[in-house]
Amino acid sequence: MNFRHLGSSGLMVSEISYGNWLTHGSQVEEVAALACVRAALDEGITTFDTADVYAATRAEEVLGRALQGQRREGLEIFTKVYWPTGPGPNDRGLSRKHILESINGSLRRLKTDYVDLYQAHRYDTETPLEETMQAFADVVRQGKALYIGVSEWTAEQIRAGVAMAKQLGFQLISSQPQYSMLWRVIEGEVIPASQELGVGQIVWSPIAQGVLTGKYKPGQKPPEGSRATDDKGGSRFIQRFMTDDVLTRVQQLKPVADGVGLSLAQLAVAWVLQNPNVSSAIIGASRPDQVKENVKAAGVKLSGDVMKKIDELLGPIVERDPARTRQGAPEKRP
């Protein structure tokens, strides 16, 4: 496993991190989830990402149990706050009340005294940024989080957040956006702003919800038990990639992957890691062997010719519009 700085901070993270969105407490039974975490640890992954909303808080509980007995100083544990975790109007968003209550709940479920990174899971249009950032500053000063990050914020929002964090005396060091060969909306604005500000990307869905594994074939039904057949939420997120044009072009990547001795999934993870602003790529898994295979992308260097060939093959199906970040964000709290 290789390690990278998270943004311009001194914090080192494994360049492949383990995330449990849509798996722990939901798609995958706990025994399998624990086996996946053990596989991640065995492969040298030290960075684990979750969120209070995943599986209605159960994902944090599963991860907390899975990491029990590990040396805490040897781990980087990340979680997030924003989406609803209860029925009340204050059980969501980035108000001072919700942030300060949510960090306590996350720490209890994760069985730890602090998280290494606490992230704003979306931008809250209904709370003044000053209130949100002051609450994060207090969380840091209380020792409950070491660093602060954001997820799916626009370049403009990141700029404002970094500036206010500096005024309040803490570091906003990371952004967690979707990023893959197929979804490159952060390249136009978010990455240039982040490079300027010292913010690193922790990218999710580098395999495009499994589409870039090549297991989905054009004109064929999705394999049983795959993400595309998951009625607990997985199928909803993958649908935008499930067109014959996308699936056909993904199959055309197979010779490229073969040429560099990688599987399609490994090629996809290696591709995002070529971007110098990417600190870590999050992988999920429902089986330990998936973890063991995907970590082989660590340390892979792809040549310019390979990167160019990927661009040629994927061509017009790549989404690049920076506006998609703002379009995908809630206008009001859910």
Automatic annotation (TrEMBL):
Biological processes, Gene Ontology terms = monoatomic ion transmembrane transport
GO CC annotation terms, alphabetical: cytosol
| Domain NADP-dependent oxidoreductase: start-end pairs | 15-313
Query: Molecular function terms in GO for this entry?
Result: oxidoreductase activity
Question: Does the keyword field hold Transport?
Answer: yes
| Coiled coil feature spans | none
Task: Keywords in alphabetical order, please.
Answer: Ion channel, Ion transport, NADP, Oxidoreductase, Transport
The yes or no answer to whether the keyword Thylakoid is present is no
Question: Could you tell me which CDD domains the record lists for this protein?
Answer: Aldo_ket_red_shaker-like
For region Disordered, the annotated ranges are 214-234
Q: Which Pfam families match?
A: Aldo_ket_red
Q: Which residues form the signal peptide?
A: none
Q: Which InterPro entries match?
A: K_chnl_volt-dep_bsu_KCNAB-rel, NAD(P)_OxRdtase_dom_sf, NADP_OxRdtase_dom
Family listed: Belongs to the shaker potassium channel beta subunit family.
PANTHER family on file: HYPERKINETIC, ISOFORM M
- Protein name per Swiss-Prot or TrEMBL: Aryl-alcohol dehydrogenase-like predicted oxidoreductase
Protein species of origin: Archangium gephyra
For this protein's source organism, the top of the classification is: Bacteria, Pseudomonadati, Myxococcota, Myxococcia, Myxococcales
